[in-house]
Design brief:
Blueprint: H1 2-24, H2 30-35, E1 46-47, H3 62-65, E2 70-75, H4 86-90, E3 96-100, E4 108-112, E5 120-124, E6 127-128, E7 146-153, H5 157-160, E8 167-173, E9 181-189, E10 193-204, E11 207-218, E12 222-226, E13 238-242, E14 247-259, E15 265-278, E16 291-307, E17 311-327, E18 336-353, E19 356-371, E20 376-393, E21 398-409, E22 412-426, E23 429-440, H6 444-447, E24 463-475, E25 479-499, E26 503-526, E27 529-542, E28 560-568, E29 574-582, E30 585-586, E31 596-597, E32 600-612, E33 616-624, E34 643-652
Parallel strand pairs: 5-8
Antiparallel strand pairs: 1-2, 2-7, 3-4, 5-6, 7-8, 9-10, 9-34, 10-11, 11-14, 12-13, 14-15, 15-16, 16-17, 17-18, 18-19, 19-20, 20-21, 21-22, 22-23, 23-24, 24-25, 25-26, 26-27, 27-28, 28-29, 29-32, 30-31, 32-33, 33-34
């Protein structure tokens, strides 16, 4: 039923866009023409560097929110047509490790600079995506929705609020256009996986609108070989089949943008996603019928405008509702239906006064969760005040950026200061450094809601992170290199401990130290050649006083991770290759090497060809895990091996600009 309704709405909007776009083409507005310059054929992931002009960036862009932060921006449009999901694209950045539990549609989360997944904030156009347990599931955000991904590594509490111990990620959705544009894409491949989306954009009601529909499914079953008696030498391997890996889902994105007098703008967003997937459980406790059905509705609106030549202001409102139903569990363990709701407002003003650029943010929101089992419920308010000064000295070669957020989350009062500095050394060289404090308030599930055999603990205190980082940078027209180091101390970490007779309960008893180094490189020496690379070396140390764990490395934190990507060729025929090398990971706090996930080397290759124009037709072929390296998720469940996918993309632009020399991307 919902698929039929979405299809009808899409067709109606396409027809409306076409009629208004044709009428609007007779007298195009100068602003629209300027904003619709076609994208270059190659768009690289961008590492923000010192000395780059950010004055024209949106007030809520990552590089405006934190001018000296360790920020990477990935342009998702550069990867259009590739069989990649959101988590895979983010995993190419330094110090970001994906915790993957299976194939298409299975849960995927991020570990950033050693911080747990519930210590990383994730937003969709500023709407928080972290759920009642504090974790954001990236499998619910298809790449088709996205224009770019903004990643801040390090203390994010001052600019993004509680929860940003290791960093923050803002997923920015595709922008609408006043010119009629339409596109579609379908992918088919291994494990009976099918993914598709269609989109249309154009003029509507004196503004620009975008509608995008997406869907997909995967059977997911695959075979693997296992040694059932690893203690014996030369033991023959047996063939097994990984089941409970199927998923299906879909959704829609609607965006509307309207320009205001005086240079202002209003943006409105509505996004809905639906997903149904099997839950495999763990190696020790596999499930036979457990499933999860999840629906998310997100609504957002943002107003922004300049005030004279030295000021600007913005206001944002958002609402999100998650419906989560888990069925098929064992009696007494089934978590049943859960409803999570969050909504709030944020107002920000910025003014330039001499060498100062002052920003003040006021924010307030409400959150609530209900759990069908036991009629459990909890709610609280959040409120915060943030102030930041961007002080520019010596002809803007030196910048000092102090910021401070005072926040109230439920009954917790939190203080998150940060000091950043950057120096432009000239000739493309620069350095930056940051030091700050962030907090994570305990989640609703940890505080109030019983989840099967996991008990809540209302006496929990917020986790705290003290972090520093520094880096040197160099950039010219074709090359960009960033190299630096970081360190963090995590205190009052929440971990579950046995609660007799058969239960577990969370306590603030853990502490950890994390330090490491990061290198990111991007290059475009020729129009037909692009390359990116990132490397992270990360050391962790458990500081909990129990001698069984003290000084040991934290589980699920690989020491080394390197990703390299190369793309060669023009738009009509190009090839690409990507290599991910990740070292072994421990799976418990004791630090026994035999209890670890082995290292992995994943090689992926692909090719694309745009063989027809007006409309543009592009066919792509991708092979993931070319060497068929067999690995496992963080519970020990096997992950898929080699997989192949074919993608056909169609893009129609009936009225390209006269000076366009490349086709607009799908």
């Amino acid at each position: 039923m919902w698929r039929s309704l979405l299809a009808r709405a899409f067709m109606g909007l396409v027809l409306s866009f076409q009629a208004q776009a044709q009428a609007g083409q007779e007298t195009p507005a100068p602003e629209a023409e300027a904003s619709e310059t076609p994208l270059p054929e190659f768009v690289l992931p961008t590492v923000e560097v010192i000395g780059k002009d950010v004055s024209e960036a949106p007030v809520d862009a990552a590089r405006r929110r934190d001018p000296t932060g360790a920020i990477t921006v990935i342009d998702a449009r550069e990867r259009a047509g590739e069989a990649r999901d959101t988590a895979e694209l983010l995993g190419g950045s330094a110090s970001l490790v994906v915790q993957d539990s299976g194939g298409y549609g299975q849960s995927k989360s991020l570990v950033v600079r050693g911080a747990s997944s519930n210590g990383v904030l994730v937003f969709l156009d500023g709407i928080p995506l972290n759920g009642a347990g504090g974790v954001a599931d990236l499998s619910l955000i298809p790449v088709a929705l996205l224009e770019r991904m903004e990643i801040l590594r390090g203390a994010a509490g001052a600019r993004y609020g509680a929860g940003g111990l290791g960093g923050a990620v803002n997923l920015v959705t595709r922008a609408p256009s006043s010119r009629l544009l339409s596109s579609g894409e379908v992918t088919y491949g291994s494990f009976e996986t099918v993914m598709a989306h269609v989109a249309a954009s154009g003029a509507l009601l004196d503004g620009q609108a975008l509608v995008l529909l997406h869907g997909g499914r995967s059977q997911g079953d695959f075979s693997y070989r296992v040694d059932e008696l690893p203690a014996l030498d030369d033991n023959p391997l047996t063939q097994e089949v990984r089941t409970r890996n199927d998923a299906r889902g879909g959704g829609a994105l609607l965006k509307y943008r309207h320009g205001l007098d005086g240079g202002g703008r209003v943006d409105v967003l509505a996004e809905v996603s639906l997903e149904d997937r099997a839950l495999a459980g763990t190696v020790q406790n596999p499930t036979v019928s457990r499933r999860q059905d999840q629906t998310r509705l997100s609504l957002g609106a943002r107003w922004a405008r300049p005030f004279g030549d030295t000021g600007e202001g913005s206001a944002r409102g958002f609402f999100r509702r998650d419906w989560l139903d888990v069925t098929g569990g064992t009696t007494g363990v089934d978590s049943g239906a859960q409803r999570y709701t969050v909504g709030g407002v944020e107002v920000e003003g910025r003014a330039v006064w001499g060498p100062h650029a002052l920003a003040v943010t006021l924010a307030g929101s409400s959150e609530s969760v209900t759990q069908a089992v036991g009629a459990q419920a909890a709610s609280w308010w959040r409120a915060s005040v943030m102030a930041m000064d961007e002080l520019s000295l010596f002809s803007e070669r030196l910048k000092l950026v102090p910021s401070l957020r005072v926040e109230r989350v439920g009954r917790f009062s939190l203080l998150s200061p940060k000091l950043g500095a950057s120096v432009d050394l000239g000739h493309g060289f620069g350095v930056r450094a940051n030091a700050g404090q962030s907090h994570r308030a305990p989640s609703f599930l940890e505080l109030y809601i019983r989840q099967g055999l996991l008990l809540p603990n209302p006496e929990l205190k917020p986790e705290r992170a003290l972090s520093v980082d520094a880096a040197a940078l160099w950039r010219d027209d074709a090359w960009s290199v960033t190299a630096g180091g970081f360190a963090a101390v995590y205190e009052n970490l929440i971990a579950y401990e046995l609660y007799p007779p058969m239960l577990a309960k969370p306590y603030n008893f853990a502490a950890a130290r994390v330090w490491g180094a990061e290198v990111e490189l991007e290059a475009r020496p020729r129009a037909w050649l692009t390359a990116t690379s990132s490397y992270a070396w990360t050391r962790t140390q458990n500081r909990y006083g129990d001698p069984r764990y003290f000084g040991k490395e934290l589980p699920y934190r690989p020491r080394h991770k390197w990703v390299g990507r190369l793309r060669v060729g023009p738009g009509w025929l190009n090839g690409r290759a990507e290599v991910l090398v990740q070292s072994a990971q421990l799976i418990n706090r004791v630090g026994e090497a035999r209890l670890s996930l082995p290292s992995r080397t994943w090689v992926s290759v692909g090719a694309s060809s745009t063989f027809l124009h007006r409309p543009d037709l592009t066919v792509s072929f991708d092979v993931k895990n070319l060497l068929d390296a067999r690995t496992a998720d963080y519970t020990g469940m096997p992950l898929p091996g080699r997989a192949a996918y074919v993608t056909l993309a169609v893009a129609l632009d009936p009225s390209p600009p006269e000076d366009s020399h490349v086709a607009s991307p799908p």
